[in-house]
């Protein structure tokens, strides 16, 4: 059976009568990426690195105390192998949710993530700007949403295809603001229109 990403992104880990709920929020994703980088996190999960595993649980816990209590329950002088067995797969699923779910258009094939080098710090910065700037969310709402939730909310508001309201590139909007222009001013569109007029 293949893994299917859940519509509501969260992971529950149950072990020895204790449960912790983890959410792949923008805050957790940005924090863990800045501390370790995703290659080190995935390697830490494979190698059963207790520091990375514990930090991931604490950082992504829906309530910080819930993660700490879950970890304290595991530190009672028992072997760690059953704990590692219980957390490894759910944590791998959680970390994969730190990457926004791919947006599928009807006329484009999926792009494999591994084929391009992506700077996730820039991705998270842009998602934060989209959430607070374009969607009008508070900083707290932006940090507590998942990358996929921010993407989906943006698509719900602005659309993705032909005829949908197209928002400008967040970096271009920032340059427009810095130059005292309307953030929605489409400089590329204006240049294309000028070129078309000049060619006639």
Number of strands: 2
Strand content: 5-15%
Structural class based on helices, strands and sheet pairing: mainly alpha
Give the topology string: H per helix, E per strand.
EEHHHHHHHHHH
How many structurally independent domains? 2
Principal-axis shape equals: elongated
Q: Helical stretch count?
A: 10
CA-to-CA gap between the ends? 58 Å
Q: What does the largest sheet look like?
A: 2 strands, antiparallel
Q: Tell me the helix content.
A: 55-70%
Mean pLDDT: 79
Strand order of the largest sheet: 1-2
Identify the notable features of this structure and list them briefly:
mainly alpha; elongated; 2 domains; single chain
List the helices and strands and how they pair.
Blueprint: E1 11-15, E2 18-22, H1 26-35, H2 38-46, H3 50-60, H4 64-74, H5 81-96, H6 120-134, H7 139-144, H8 147-158, H9 170-178, H10 187-199
Antiparallel strand pairs: 1-2
Helix pairs in contact: 1-3, 1-6, 2-5, 3-4, 6-8
Summarize the structure.
This protein has 200 residues and is mainly α.
Task: Describe this entry's structure for a reader.
The protein has about 200 residues and is mainly alpha-helical. It has two domains: about 10-95, no CATH class; about 115-200, no CATH class. Helices cover about 55% and strands about 5% of the residues. The chain has a two-stranded antiparallel ribbon. α1 (about 25-35) packs antiparallel against α6 and α6 crosses α8. The termini are far apart. About 20% of the residues are buried.
